[in-house]
Specification:
alpha+beta, Aminopeptidase, five-stranded mixed sheet, 2 helices, 5 strands, globular
């Protein structure tokens, strides 16, 4: 299977119509089939990942890491000094993907849901 990563181009819109429209996007293809994407936005000078997805049929091929690596290159080229991403508790695969790309935890956010009065 041949994997290909490309930076967002408007012609991809029809193939990735369900992806949120973040200003900084990278898409992945497996044998020319749309297989995943990553999207980020500028949040106070940091490039913040808001969407990172690989279609279930194309997981465990390294595509998620390839998407992330390309976004890191794009961020560096655009002059960002930091890229941030949030990983849900228990999502070990996402955590390992980011750690393998040299991301490190810098804060832990705790939350308690409150029921309406």
């Amino acid at each position: 299977m041949q994997l290909r990563i490309e930076r967002w181009h408007p012609s991809f819109a029809a193939q990735f119509s369900d992806v949120a429209k973040y200003p900084f996007r990278v898409v992945g293809f497996a044998d020319s089939v749309p297989a995943g994407s990553i999207g980020a936005e500028d949040a106070g000078g940091a490039l913040v990942v808001r969407h990172h997805f690989v279609d279930e049929g194309f997981r465990n091929l390294g595509l998620g890491g390839m998407l992330l690596d390309e976004l890191v290159l794009l961020g560096a080229e655009l002059g960002f000094q930091r890229i941030e991403a949030a990983v849900p508790p228990g999502d070990r695969i996402a955590k390992l993907t980011y750690e393998s790309a040299k991301f490190k935890a810098v804060r832990i956010v705790l939350c308690r849901e409150l029921l309406p009065g």
